[in-house]
């Protein structure tokens, strides 16, 4: 397995797909990287030479913010939104959808498992 920016990349997949295993690199960015490195997108990672892999590493290191640095930046942005008290920050803090989605019915992945709430009336003890 090739290792780029601390991520093990699958050998038996096309280069475009394999590069998208890196956090911060999607299909479009992986195509750009491969074009800069003069590598065919359909080439398998196991067929690349060590020089080609090193060229990919250098392009990513020079032009892209990936993995730990990107995760840190995203978390700092969310922390900043919470500190300034913006609407988006409060939505992040309450663990609710941030981008205007409805919450009355959907948003299960963000809000968690459904919790059934009683009707508000407790059953009274049996009369003796």
Can you tell me about this structure?
The protein is mainly α. The protein has two domains: 2-64, Helicase, Ruva Protein, domain 3 (Orthogonal Bundle); 68-111, Ribosomal protein S13/S18, C-terminal domain (30s ribosomal protein s13, domain 2). The chain is built from six helices and two strands. The protein has helices at 15-19, 27-36, 50-63, 67-84, 87-93, 108-111, and strands spanning 2-4, 7-9. Strands 1-2 form a two-stranded antiparallel sheet. α4 (67-84) crosses α5 (87-93). The longest helix has 18 residues, at 67-84. The radius of gyration is 24 Å and the shape is elongated. The model has no long low-confidence stretch (mean pLDDT 88).
Give a short summary of the structure.
This protein is mainly α and 128 residues long.
Category from helices, strands and their pairing: mainly alpha
Unreliable stretches, pLDDT < 50, 5 or more residues? none
**Mean of pLDDT:** 88
Name the strands of the widest sheet in spatial order.
Answer: 1-2
- Rg value: 24 Å
Distance between the first and last residues' Cα:
75 Å
The main β sheet shows up as: 2 strands, antiparallel
Q: Helical segment tally?
A: 6
CATH topology of the largest domain, by name, is Helicase, Ruva Protein, domain 3
Proportion of strand residues: under 5%
User: Judging from the principal axes of the Cα atoms, what is the shape?
Assistant: elongated
Name the CATH architecture of the largest domain. Answer: Orthogonal Bundle
Q: Give the beta-strand count.
A: 2
Helix-strand sequence: EEHHHHHH
What share of the residues lie within helices? 40-55%
Report the CATH C-level class of the largest domain: Mainly Alpha
Q: How many domains comprise the coordinates?
A: 2
């Amino acid at each position: 397995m090739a290792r780029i920016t601390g991520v093990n990349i699958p050998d038996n997949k096309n280069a475009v797909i394999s590069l998208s295993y890196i956090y911060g690199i999607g299909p479009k960015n992986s195509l750009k990287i491969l074009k800069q490195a003069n590598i065919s997108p359909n080439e398998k990672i196991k067929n690349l030479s060590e020089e080609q892999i090193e060229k990919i590493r250098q392009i990513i290191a020079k032009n892209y913010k990936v993995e730990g640095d990107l995760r840190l930046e995203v978390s700092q942005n969310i922390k900043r939104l919470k500190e300034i008290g913006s609407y988006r920050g409060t939505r992040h803090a309450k663990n609710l959808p941030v981008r205007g989605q409805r919450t009355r019915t959907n948003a299960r992945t963000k809000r968690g498992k459904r919790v059934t709430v009683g009707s508000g009336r407790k059953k009274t003890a049996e009369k003796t």
